[in-house]
Amino acid sequence: MTPETWHLMTTWVPYELWNTCYMVIVSTGIALLIGLPLGIVLTLTDRGHLKEQRVIHQLLGAIVNIGRSFPFAILMVALIPFTRWLVGTSLGTTAAIIPLSIAAIPFLARLVEAALKEVDAGVLEAAVVMGSTLRQLILKVLLPEAFPSLVLAVTTTMINLIGYSAMAGTMGGGGLGKIAIQYGYQRFNLPLMVVTVLLLILLVQVVQWLGQRWAKKIQLKRSKGAYS
């Protein structure tokens, strides 16, 4: 291993690993702020649900489908003027958060919709009979009942964003993708490429493990409460 490779591994790799985590965490947070309400509206306005509105559902569904159909590389390039207007630059980790968030919002919204539709209709009907308001139905019935599935939805979104962040790094976004391409591939530095790829795989495994563990804990507590 050359001194340059050692320096990159001990200095720049940890720094860009942090940048990858920063991009993924912030983008997930923004996606939750918009994607969760969007998924709730998609669920409530669907046929046979609490607030059926076919026009609204089809319109929002079309927007979500269009958002999901864009390849991330094309989306990132298309959003360069908007990103530059919003944060003052189209390069760097903060700038990469914009296309990452926009890519994650429709993806998460569909996962939220699927998770909420798993809730037993009988539970919702019972809450309606008891006089629950729409807000109570959402906050005290729908979301709590679907919470384990929602945790897994966020986990899947974060894993998706890790892959997107690596792609963003190849286009000036920073993170481990930047190290892999600029210092690994372009300089024929195989050890550095291997390390960055292994770190990305490890990051995915950690996120997957934490998400599944949290979801299982919630389900276990719910099961114990049901049989206690």
Word description of this protein:
The chain has 228 residues and is an all-alpha fold. The chain has one domain: MetI-like fold. The chain has 9 helices and no strands. Helix 1 packs parallel to helix 9. The protein is elongated and about 70 Å long. The protein starts with a helix and ends with a helix. The model has no long low-confidence stretch (mean pLDDT 87).
- Determine the mean pLDDT: 87
Question: Total number of helical segments?
Answer: 9
**Element-by-element helix/strand order:** HHHHHHHHH
Number of strands: 0
The rounded distance between the terminal residues' Cα atoms is: 59 Å
Would you identify the CATH H-level superfamily?
A: MetI-like
**What's the multimeric state?**
single chain
Q: Tags for this entry?
A:
228 residues; mainly alpha
Short description:
It is built from 9 helices and no strands.
How would the blueprint of this fold be written?
Elements: H1 3-44, H2 54-69, H3 72-78, H4 80-87, H5 93-116, H6 121-129, H7 134-173, H8 176-185, H9 190-227
